[in-house]
């Protein structure tokens, strides 16, 4: 069977997308191309007049800035966004798709004292302030030197960041709440929080708002209070290790999983292969009684009404409106255009406008109703599909998802990225070329969907991969020790 050369995504679209490079003079989707069309880029299916809406995914992705003839390349040179400013929204509830309950599946996880489960049993060193980043790394490194391949745990890691002092208001509270959420994360079998002693985010204020935590698995050390913080920190880690090393995995239903949904370095195939595949997986987990979380609020702009119409009730609709408008206010407070997107890499991959990007990005949410919305400091408490506040920045978004309580993150990419968060980060390529080129970055190839492999086949394979990772198989980011955090900052630095 010949591989498809192009695709019309939805009925009524005025553009199609090239699945392979196409040459001027070729015929595709019944039109003769008047330009060369790169893979992932769009071409016009009919003549489009200046100022006429351009339709993709069955939705408006922009308007023509000049007359576009059938077969022409449609991109940033001849279309522009239709978005501007804040919008008025209405709740037009759509009935969620009927999803069949899948056959029972189990995963082998660690049960924590508070009833939560984790998919890893790691020791973490978390600096409360950036001033002790090097000491946190040194403590973890010395522990690993003394206990190479320590049995019973999945590793010992330090997570550096530049904040914890010289911050005020929202920034200070956000830094503190994110680090506190990491302390309570069930993937962690034991955590040492390392303070300097004179920072804003000092021990007494941190403890005052930490909430419930496992005192037998959480330790604190102030570097200024001891002679040798490295030796003291290693001694604490060794004590935590003695408590964590005997933890055993137990079988639990797959509905216990909480999975973050993220994309980065998107291309023109993101909304055709990897993102809708992840959407199907989200629907699968939700129908099994589990939890998924979509973030990157700026990459909902242009598709937000579709998410709002999927809200389970009016209260949830109102929270989505607040989520979107608060982020637009943030842009405007800083004198930045609300719709300054997509990135240069996105454009090179075939994405032309923010609507184009957002309609592709939100494919990751599948078709389930939106059950809840999380803002700064919130952690997951509602099963089903959730939305989470935060920017599109890759590392910040992955960190936010982990701090909200996600066990792992599904990260789709068309351009490629090596990043990983403090929770396992499964990278899915939107195209086969990237998967073959970067085996040290990518875990899963969704590009074969553009080569006529069925969504059903790839969904089955993705499900097996997620279960394998939940059971302890390491992701590429874990194997290459690509583990970082980034804390969102909105205000001044003192």
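Q: What amino acid sequence fits the structure above?
A:
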């Amino acid at each position: 069977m010949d591989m498809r050369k192009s695709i019309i995504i939805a009925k009524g679209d005025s553009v199609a997308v090239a699945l392979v490079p196409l040459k001027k003079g070729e015929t595709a989707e019944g039109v003769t191309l008047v330009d060369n069309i790169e893979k992932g880029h769009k071409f016009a299916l009919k003549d489009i007049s200046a100022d006429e809406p351009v339709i993709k995914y069955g939705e408006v992705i922009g308007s023509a800035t000049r007359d576009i003839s059938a077969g022409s390349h449609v991109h940033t040179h001849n279309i522009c966004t239709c978005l501007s400013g804040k919008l008025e929204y209405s709740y037009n509830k759509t009935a969620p798709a009927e999803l069949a309950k899948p056959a029972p599946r189990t995963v082998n996880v660690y049960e924590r004292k508070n009833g939560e489960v984790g998919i890893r049993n790691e020791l973490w060193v978390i600096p409360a302030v950036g001033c002790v980043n090097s000491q946190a790394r040194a403590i973890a490194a010395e522990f690993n030197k003394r206990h190479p391949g320590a049995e019973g745990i999945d590793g010992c890691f330090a997570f550096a960041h530049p904040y914890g002092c010289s911050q005020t208001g929202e920034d200070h509270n956000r830094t503190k709440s994110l680090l506190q959420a990491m302390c309570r994360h069930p993937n962690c079998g034991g955590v040492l929080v390392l303070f300097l002693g004179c920072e804003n985010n000092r021990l007494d204020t941190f403890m005052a708002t930490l909430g419930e935590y496992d005192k037998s698995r959480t330790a604190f050390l102030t570097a200024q209070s001891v002679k040798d913080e490295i030796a003291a920190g290693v001694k604490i880690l060794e004590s935590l290790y003695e408590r964590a090393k005997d933890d055993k995995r137990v079988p639990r239903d797959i509905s216990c999983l909480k999975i973050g949904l993220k994309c980065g370095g998107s291309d023109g195939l993101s909304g055709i292969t990897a993102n809708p595949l992840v959407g199907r997986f989200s629907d699968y987990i939700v129908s099994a009684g589990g939890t998924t979380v979509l973030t990157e609020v700026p990459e909902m702009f242009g598709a937000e009404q579709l998410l709002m119409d999927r809200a389970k009730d009016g209260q949830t609709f109102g929270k989505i409106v607040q989520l979107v408008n608060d982020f637009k206010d943030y842009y405007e407070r800083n004198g930045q255009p609300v719709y300054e997107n997509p990135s240069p890499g996105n454009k090179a991959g075939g994405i032309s406008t923010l609507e184009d990007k957002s309609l592709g990005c939100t494919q990751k949410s599948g078709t389930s109703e939106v059950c809840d919305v999380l803002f700064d400091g919130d952690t997951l408490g509602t099963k089903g599909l959730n939305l989470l506040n935060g920017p599109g920045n890759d590392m910040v978004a992955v960190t936010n998802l982990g701090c909200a309580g996600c066990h792992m993150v599904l990260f789709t990419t068309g351009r490629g990225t090596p990043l990983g968060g403090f929770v396992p980060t499964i990278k899915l390529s939107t195209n086969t070329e990237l998967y073959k080129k970067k085996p040290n970055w990518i875990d899963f190839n969704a590009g074969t969907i553009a080569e006529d492999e069925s969504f059903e086949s790839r969904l089955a394979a993705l499900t097996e991969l997620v279960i394998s990772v939940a059971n302890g198989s390491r992701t590429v980011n874990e194997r290459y020790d690509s583990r970082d955090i980034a804390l969102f900052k909105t205000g001044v630095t003192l």
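Q: And what stands out in the fold?
A: The radius of gyration is 24 Å.
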